[in-house]
Write a structure and sequence with these properties.
The chain is of the alpha/beta class. The protein has helices at residues 11-18, 46-56, 67-87, 101-115, 130-143, 161-165, 190-200, 221-224, 249-252, 274-294, 300-324, 363-372, 388-394, 410-426, and strands spanning 26-27, 31-32, 34-35, 94-98, 121-125, 146-150, 172-176, 205-209, 228-231, 243-247, 338-340, 354-358, 375-376, 378-381, 398-402.
C-alpha cells in the first residue's frame, strides 16, 4: 500500500471521530470556526474532560483505604502504568508528573546535570522549544559546563544527524533533541541520533522532547534508546494542568527531590490529581479504539501503536491535500502569493504542521484575516520569546503556523484553502 500521500479515514468514520471532541466546529460563545491551531492546544476529547470533572467532584484522598479513595488511587496507579507502557512504550523506568511538560523537562535535566560528575559540555539544538532548550542552558550555567547548540537545516526545517554529531564528543554528558518541530513539523531521526551519539560516548544521557510529536505518531523510548521523553496532555486531546515524562532506570534512581521514606525511583511529591490521570486514560482508550477499528489484538500497546499509525496516515493525507489541493481548489503550493516555508516533497518526515505566509501582509494581521473568516491559526514571529530563536535558525522572518487535527476532514481542508486564496487575492 502506498502511504506517501497518507490514507484517509472513511468519511463517516472521520465524522464519528470528530463528534467525540468538544466544540470541534464552533465556539459556543463566539460562533462557528475552523480550529487549525492544535499545536497550541488540541481539541479536547469529551470523555477526557468528563473523566477529570467526575473525579474532581470528590474530596476523598487517593491515599485512603476505603472505596472512593481506592477508586481515585486506581486512576493514579493505572494511569501511571499505561502512560509509561502504552504511551511511551517503556518496559522499565519511572514516570515524572508535574503541572506542565516544561516543568518535567527542567526538573529532569537539572537532576541529571547535578548528579553526573563527568563531562564538560551538553548539547541541544536551536530548534528546540524554550522548555527544552532553556533547561539545558540553565543546567549548564548551574554546573559550569559548556552549552552547545546545533543549527537547523534551513531547507528541511529539521536537525540533521550528521550535524548533531559535530557537536557531540566523549565529554558530552547530555544531548537533548526534540522528536518533532513545533513550527516546521519536521520529524527528527531520534533513533539514529541516539545510536550515533552512544557510539561516541556510551555513557551519554539522551533527552527527547516529544510534546509536539506525541499527538501525531507513537513514541517508543525503547526503540529510540533515550533516557528522557515528555508529553503535554493538553496538546494530546487531554486536559491542561499536567505534564508527564518518562525517565530511564538510571535516571529514576538519581538523587532528586523526594520524601525521605519513599522508594528511590519515586518522583511524585504530594498527592497527584486523580482526575488528570483519569483524563489521560480516556485519551489512551480513544487511540486504542481507533486501533481496534483496523486490527484485532488484546495487547493495548499494539492497539495504541496502530491507532497512532492510522492517525498519522490520516494527517499525512490532510497535509498532502493542504499542500497540493484538488481540481476544485488549489493547494498552498499553488496559490499565488502564498509561501510554504521549509517545505519538502518527502512527507514521511513531517507531522501535521505547516509554516506559511502570504506576501504583502504581516503575520499578526494575516491571523486576524483568518479569524474574520472563521479560521483559527497562530503566528510565530521574532518578537515572541517562544519563536525568535526558532524562526531565526530556520532562516525565515516568521510564520503562520497551521495545525489541524486528525479528526478534520476533506471539507475542512478545502474550506481553509478557499479562505487562504481569498486572503491572498485581497492583498
Amino acid at each position: 500500500m502506498n502511504t506517501e500521500k497518507g490514507i484517509w479515514f472513511p468519511d463517516e468514520y472521520q465524522k464519528h471521530l470528530k463528534a467525540q471532541f468538544c466544540y470541534a466546529d464552533e465556539d459556543p460563545l463566539y460562533g462557528p470556526r475552523l480550529f487549525f491551531e492544535n499545536s497550541g492546544g488540541s481539541l479536547r476529547l469529551r470523555k477526557a474532560v468528563e473523566a477529570k470533572a467526575a473525579a474532581e467532584q470528590f474530596p476523598d484522598c487517593p491515599e485512603r483505604n476505603y472505596a472512593r479513595g481506592l477508586k481515585l488511587a486506581d486512576y493514579v496507579s493505572e494511569g501511571t502504568k499505561e502512560i509509561l507502557e502504552v504511551v511511551f512504550g517503556a518496559k522499565s523506568g519511572a514516570l515524572v508528573s508535574e503541572l506542565s511538560a516544561s516543568q518535567t523537562m527542567f526538573k529532569i535535566v537539572d537532576t541529571i546535570m547535578e548528579n553526573v560528575k563527568w563531562g564538560t559540555n551538553a548539547v541541544t539544538s536551536c530548534l528546540e522549544h524554550p522548555s527544552a532548550h532553556d533547561a539545558v542552558e540553565y543546567a549548564c550555567m548551574k554546573t559550569g559546563r559548556e552549552f552547545r547548540e546545533v543549527p537547523a537545516n534551513q531547507t528541511t526545517g529539521g536537525i540533521d544527524v550528521d550535524e548533531v554529531m559535530k557537536y557531540v564528543d566523549k565529554d558530552t554528558c547530555l544531548l537533548s533533541i526534540m522528536a518533532a518541530s513545533n513550527i516546521s513539523g519536521n520529524v527528527m531521526d531520534i533513533k539514529e541520533i541516539s545510536r550515533r551519539a552512544r557510539e561516541i560516548n556510551p555513557e551519554i544521557y539522551i533527552v527527547s522532547d516529544a510534546v509536539q510529536h506525541a499527538p501525531h505518531a507513537a513514541i517508543d523510548v525503547e526503540d529510540w534508546d533515550v533516557d528522557v521523553s515528555n508529553i503535554a496532555p493538553y496538546k494530546f486531546f487531554g486536559v491542561r494542568g499536567c505534564g508527564y515524562a518518562y525517565v530511564s532506570d538510571r535516571v529514576a534512581s538519581m538523587m532528586h527531590h523526594k520524601l525521605t521514606h519513599k522508594d528511590a525511583n519515586v518522583w511524585q511529591l504530594g498527592t497527584p490529581s486523580p482526575g488528570n490521570f483519569a483524563a489521560m486514560l480516556e485519551v489512551i482508550d480513544y487511540v486504542c479504539t481507533i486501533g481496534e477499528h483496523f486490527i484485532h489484538s488484546t495487547d493495548k500497546r499494539t492497539l495504541f501503536e496502530e491507532g497512532m499509525h492510522r492517525i498519522h496516515m490520516q494527517e499525512r493525507a490532510i497535509l498532502y491535500r493542504m499542500l497540493e489541493g484538488t481540481d476544485e481548489v488549489p493547494g498552498l503550493r499553488h496559490i499565488p502569493g502564498v509561501e510554504v516555508y521549509v517545505d519538502m516533497e518527502d512527507l514521511t518526515w513531517k507531522d501535521l504542521i505547516i509554516a506559511m505566509g502570504i506576501k504583502g501582509i504581516d503575520y499578526p494581521d494575516c491571523v486576524i484575516e483568518y479569524m474574520k473568516r472563521g479560521v483559527t491559526v497562530f503566528e510565530r514571529v521574532r518578537s515572541s520569546m517562544y519563536s525568535k530563536r526558532i524562526v531565526e535558525t530556520l532562516g525565515i522572518p516568521g510564520a503562520i503556523r497551521v495545525s489541524p487535527l486528525h479528526c478534520h476532514g476533506k471539507d475542512d481542508v478545502d474550506k481553509f484553502l478557499k479562505v487562504t486564496k481569498e486572503i491572498a487575492e485581497s492583498v
